[in-house]
Design a protein that fits this description.
247 residues, 2 strands, 72% helix
Length: 247
């Protein structure tokens, strides 16, 4: 086994990271496409609707928000996390002098970079949604203070969205590693998810979601996410060490 010093390990991680940025340019194109699709759906149909009528008077109210943008982005993050664990991707790392740890570190660095980009583009797309509603909606729009956001709110939104994206990406990453360890997890993981979400008598998933989504402090929320993803990524590295060494 080749001995790697800290300095050479850092250099290898950097080379693999830069390689993955180029090799996975399609992931960023996919992000752009899903966000444009979410933007279009949001402008055309909104996120909710209510209405009332009295005699000849009829009022219809359509609600617009960026929830669909965030949902599509999180689905993209989950898929991207899984993609980085496929055999084709892992074997591509052997084009470098590498070991399992440097391969994982470069993948994690890529996911962090992709998450920051996704967080920024999601918030910018949310502002673009406001513009699109103004110009393309055929309804009379009631503008209020919530229609525009301050620069501080924009920064907070970017940070929070980035945290959500990297959290979902890390879940996809460890699930991908579990599937690579055993194909049985293709059945076990969906079954476990259904068990956690099925029935009001089993609110486990609701508690898990609330643990993150109901946090009002950005610092505590970021701390929760960082601790969680550290555990998930460490788990993925541990799982890979149990897999057969590539021959």
């Amino acid at each position: 086994m080749m001995y790697l010093t800290n300095a050479s390990s850092s250099a290898i991680v950097k080379r693999q990271y830069l390689f993955k940025l180029r090799a996975f340019i399609g992931a960023f194109i996919a992000l752009m496409l899903v966000q444009w699709a979410a933007l279009g759906f949001s402008i055309l149909s909104g996120s909710g609707m209510t209405g009332t009528s009295s005699g000849d008077l009829s009022i219809k109210v359509t609600y617009f928000n960026g929830n669909l943008l965030i949902t599509f982005t999180l689905l993209w993050a989950f898929t991207t996390g899984i993609t980085l664990t496929t055999k084709q991707t892992r074997y591509g790392d052997f084009a470098f002098v590498t070991n399992r740890l440097t391969s994982h570190l470069s993948s994690i660095a890529f996911l962090f970079t992709a998450s920051v980009i996704a967080g920024v583009t999601t918030m910018l797309a949310s502002n673009l949604l406001r513009v699109g509603i103004t110009f393309f909606s055929d309804a009379n729009i009631f503008l209020n203070q919530s229609f525009s956001i301050s620069f501080l709110e924009l920064i907070i939104g970017i940070v929070a969205t980035t945290m959500y994206v990297i959290l979902i990406a890390s879940i996809g990453y460890i699930i991908g590693m579990l599937v690579q360890l055993s194909k049985l997890f293709v059945i076990i993981i969906p079954s476990l998810f259904i068990a956690l979400t099925m029935g009001s008598a089993n609110p486990s998933m609701e508690y898990i979601v609330a643990f993150y989504s109901k946090e009002t402090s950005l610092f505590l929320f970021a701390l929760k996410v960082l601790i969680t993803i550290s555990i998930l990524f460490a788990g993925a590295i541990f799982i890979s060490n149990r897999m057969e060494v590539r021959r």
